[in-house]
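Not sure how to ask, but would you mind making up any protein sequence you like and the tokens describing how it folds?
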Amino acid sequence: RELSPGLRNSCLEVLVSTAEGEEVMVRRCPEFLQQTVLLTLSLMVEVPHDPDWVTKDHQLDKGAEENANFEFAEMAMDRLALAIGGRKLQPIVFPLISKCVSNEDWKMRRAGLMSLSQVAEVMEFKQIPINNIVKYLGDGHPRVRHAAANCIGQLSNDFAPYIQDSCHKIIIPGLLSLLVDHRFPRIQTHAAAALFNFTEHCEEELLTPYVDVLMKHLFTTLSQGKRPVQEQILTTVACIAGSAPKAFSKHYDRVMGMVMKVLTTARSKETERLRARAMECVSYIGMAVGKERFKPHATQLMNIFDQMIRAGFMNDDTTKQYMLQAWTRIGSAIKEDFEPYLKHVLPHVFMAASKKIEFSQAQLNGKAILGLTTSLEEKATACSMLCSFAHDINKGYFPFVEDTYKVMGPLMEYYLNDDVRSFAISIMPDLIQSTISAVQDRKTDTRYLKNLFGVVTGRMIECLQNEPDTDMLCTLVSAIQKAFRVAGPLAKNCLNRKSLEVVGMAMLKLLNKSQQHIITLEGRRTKSEDMDEEGIAKIEQKIAEEDELSLLAADAIGVLIKSHGTDFLPVFEKLGPRIVEMLHPKRTVTTRKYAIFILDDLFEFIGEPAGRYFPQLLPWFFQYALETQSPNLQQATVYGLGICAEHGGKGFDRYVEKTLQTLGNAIQHNRKLGARASDDTKSATDNAISAFGKVCRYRSSCVDLNKMLPVWLGWLPLQIDGSEAASVYSMLCALIESQNTALLGQNMRNLPQVVTVLVRAFTGPLGIPPEIRARMVKIMRQILTMPKNMLDVLAKQVQPQVMEAMRKITSG
């Protein structure tokens, strides 16, 4: 302790940075980890005694504590947890925390609770002693109660919604007990913040019984509490309104009266944060209660905001930031009715989004460092606003499309901030949608749309080439997909063949590159001797992210096919060889699966003209339909065979016999697995059954239905794939309704099996659409109206519980 605080913090920084940079090595050195955690905890105990602490404004006091040893140590504990992970950290840190919280020294108890706050996010919920933590809300020392509230607030985020579902009966009353104790304003503030965190993740049904008592105490504290407490109360009230809007509704008028009064009277520098929180509160409440109830207040709010702007309040960074966010929420609440305000609001938003970021010099442990100013946060907020306005106002946003693109287009490659980049990318489809609406309303012509679409998609493809981050690549590909989806058939006129080919090739290259990354990651996972469980988990997370990117890229090609139809065929001539190469057995199973996904879309959305590729491609389908060791690949392939039967036209007739044989073999093999079949295998089987039915339905002239339909019936009901249930059971109902003899058999000998399938399908777990369920009920009622002698025969041929279930279904 004789060393300076800055030097001690620097020493701790070395230890923590080592853990972050060499996490595998550190996990294998329990002594190093034990000592680092112990040293961190010892620094967390060094909290200065300040009898006035409980009444100080936490915002004003925050700067004085930021470089203190205990604050630095708390951040270090969080970094250690993220670097090391819960498996290795839990057996070391939990015994130390247990000793701390049972100590007579309040500083030790506080340090234990704060440590738990920092490490809990990497632990499992069942490891967290919630009941014990809640007890410390009633501790004899205010700093410990404060730490307990902090811990509950953090856990409410880390373990939502499990903590809300299982612990609401003890947590809400515990926090309320701190909220109503006006002797300790700082603890009141923290209790209100913890309530915000807790209620934010509550289901409406769970929170509703508490709303009245919460609002009663929040109203009391709002009218009697000190300003910092009032600021947090406003935010908590807004959160409750959003989580339980129906129960909050009766408190709406009273809350709005109080908040509007704050906005019209709190005009001094000292009330800056209170004014800002009031803006936040009222706009969140507007989103919660809906357009009709909120609209009159929205008009008043916009007038108040206008007065604030004229009075120069936009020169105050806090007011500006909160007003920008409030405008966004008001726009989301009243949607197209916000259009008249756009011309007044957007100049401020464009200015904030375009603002050049300034750097400032700050001191950390006595050393000068460069830091970003709040302008970056303001810039991100402004970009977020533009996204919301473009999406929510849609048609009315068209006059601002061009100016928005001028601001947001360059920001798609703004590598200083991921949020800014993401917002800039995400807004592009909405600008296209707004322009399409303007074309439809004859406010502009298709030439403008064609130019905008070409510029936007071209820029996004350029960004693909340079973007290093997997998550951002997913955002880019999703935006490209959405752009083509919203354009629909109009996309045909927006890009020429060469440009379309560029987009398709970019997606294909991205897919293959992502698959190659997965191979590299899997190699590291299996071959590295230095890899431990935490390291493997991180690699698996990266593999999952790359796989998501691959799926998005494959889906994007499908969207291109759907939007362009037969116009895509010349492009496929260029892409086809690369896709066929992806089908080769030397490629990974997932690569082959995504190639099949693309071909499924080709056959579905282009239809019969795509049949020219059957000779080249269907042999791969027949091969992979029997790939029983790779059920995801099998599922995609058998689904595609059903698509070919439905959309392939007469060109598919020559493949019908081979298709039925292949599907039958796949189904029989998978069904033999019985209870050993995985869910993926069951899904593949269901898709094969559905495809078999489609062949019988759409290529009936090539099928011996008297033989094949009873076989198909024998495989029903489906086991797991709800997405196929609608088409399968719709076909079954249609065959029964038409009294199809191939299905029902001569003299309806297959009726017992039909009844069994109907009942088991109806009572099974799959989500059958209501209209098909209604058809099933009608069919079962007709069956029960048969003559008694026929029903008696039927009853002897089906299980008693099936007949009982059918009667119960039809009596409802």
